[in-house]
Amino acid sequence: MNTTIRLAIICATFCLSFTGFATAQEQDSTLHSRLTVGGYGEAVYSRHFYSDNVFRYSHAERYKDAPGYGRFDLPHAVIMLGYDFGHGWTMGTEIEFEHGGIEAAVEKETEETGEFEQEIERGGEVALEQFWIQKSFSRGLNLRIGHIVVPVGMTNNNHTPNMFFGVYRPEGENTIMPCTWHETGVSLWGRLGNWRYEVQMLPALNSNLFTDAGWVHNGSASPYEFRPANNLAAAARIDWFAAKGLRLSLSGYVGNTFSNDIVTEQYSETSRYRNAKGTLMIGCFDFSYSNPCLIVRGNLDYGFLGDASLISTRNKNQTTMNGNPYAHTAVGEQAWDASLEAGINLLARSNTDRKLYLFGRYDHYDSFVPADGWADIEWAERTLLSLGANYCPIPEIAIKAEAGIRLLAEQYNNEPYAAVGITWCGFFKR
After folding, report:
1. Where is 16: in which H helix or E strand?
2. Arithmetic mean of pLDDT, 130-146
3. How confident is the model over 230-240, as pLDDT tens digits?
4. Tell me, what's the pLDDT at 362?
5. How far apart are CA 326 and CA 319, in angstroms?
6. CB-based burial, 141-158: b 16+ in 10 Å, e otherwise
7. What is the pTM of this model?
8. What CA–CA distance (Å, rounded) separates 51 from 314?
C-alpha cells in the first residue's frame, strides 16, 4: 500500500472519529438541555423568651419568669431535579432534609409526663417530597402520577422560602395541616386562560396520628416502609389570576380517616366504633397580590372532623399497645386559621435588582375546637403578631429578621421571640 493511500485512510479515520466525537458532544448537550437542577434551603437562629418546659401550660405560674432558650436550625434543605424525556413526558423530584437530619428525633412530650420519646415521622432516612412522572397532552390537560404535593391551603402550594416573609413557614397552617403535605397519588391539572385547576386522588390521612396541639398535622406521616391506604381521599384546587399580580384561590380536601392504618379491627354490632368513618373535610381560601412596591398575602382555613369524639376515645385508649407510634391525645372536631401578611419594598424606586421589604404579619388559629363531651384546651387558640425585614441582595437570596409574640389566653404566659435567617431558592440549570 503506497504512502498516498495510507495517508488517505488515516485522514478518513480521523475525520470519522472527530465526527463521532462531535455527534456525542451534541447528544450530551441535548441531554443536559433537558435537565433541570435547583433547590432551596434555610439556616436560622432563634431566641425564645419563654419556657420550653412541658408543663408551661398546666402550671403557667411556675414559668412566668423563665429565662428562655435559643436554637440554631436548618429547617429545610432541598435538592430539586427534573428531566424532559420528550413527547410530553417529564419527571420531577424534590429530596428534602428537614432540620439537617433524617426525620428521626428525640422529643419531650408536651403536657403528658414530660418523658423523652423517640419520634420517627416517616419511614426511611431521607424525605422524598416529590417524585413523579407526568404526561402533558396540552397546556390545559396534564396527568401526574407519583409522589406529589397536596395543594391545599396557601403554604402547601407556596412552600419555598421566597413565598413568605417570616423566618419560618406561616405558623397557623403549619400547625393544623400537614406542611409540606406530600402524598403518593394521581393528579390531573391544567391551565385554561386565567384559570388553573388541579384534582388529586390520594391515600386518606390516618386518624391514629391526630393530636390536640396539631389537629391533623401528623396524619400524613407513616412510620412504616409504606403508606397505609385502606381509605382514599380527594383534594382539589382552583386558582384565578384575576388581574396582573393578583391571584385568588380555593382548595379543599375530603376523606375518611378512621382505621386507615395497619392496625384495623372488625367491630361487632354492639361496638361504639362500628359505624365510625372519621370523615375529614378541609376548605381553604387564599390570595396574593404583588407589584414592585408591595406584596400582600392572606388565607382562611377551616376543617371539620367527623366522629372526633370516638377518635379521641380510641386514641387515648391505645396506650396498652407496646411500642405503637400513636399520639394518645384527644383531637378537636374543628380547627381553623386566619392570617395576613404585607410587605413594602423600600428599594422599589431604585434602579436595582435588590429588594428590602419591611413586613408585618398576623396569624390567629385554633388547633382544638372540642367535640361534645370534651373539655376545651384553651392554649390551643393562639394569636401571633410579628414584624420584620427581608433583604434580597440578588433575587435568589433573602436575609430575614423577625420579632414577634404569641398571645394566649390570659391564664397562660405569652411567648415572645426573635429570629434571623438566610435563605436561598433557585435553579442551577434549567
Report:
1. helix 3-33
2. 97
3. 999 999 999 99
4. 98
5. 8
6. ebebebbbbbbbbbbbbb
7. 0.87
8. 32
Report whether pLDDT(109) > 80: no
In this structure, which amino acid lies at residue 373? G
Integer Cα distance of 200 and 238 in angstroms:
12
Residue located via cell numbers 377551616? 302
| Cα–Cα distance for residue pair 318/115, rounded to 1 Å | 18
pLDDT: is 317 or 265 the higher one?
A: 317
What backbone phi and psi angles, to 5 degrees, belong to 350?
A: -85, 150
Better-scored residue on pLDDT, 265 or 403:
403
Cα distance from N-terminal residue to C-terminal residue, the chain: 53
Residues in the chain: 430
For residue 180, cis peptide bond before it (omega within 30 degrees of 0): yes
pLDDT score recorded for residue 284: 98
Name the E strands within 244-276.
246-256
Distance CA 383, CA 69 (A): 21
131: CB partners within 8 A, 6+ apart? 92, 93, 94, 146, 147
Report, in this order, helix, strand and coil percent for the chain, each rounded to 5: 15, 50, 35
Tens of pLDDT, residue by residue over 262-288, are 866 777 676 888 889 999 999 999 999
- Torsion, Cα of 230, 95, 339, 341 (10° steps): -170
Contact 286/240 with Cβ under 8 angstroms? no
Residues 6+ apart with CB under 8 A from 50: 56, 63, 66, 68, 413, 414, 415, 416, 417
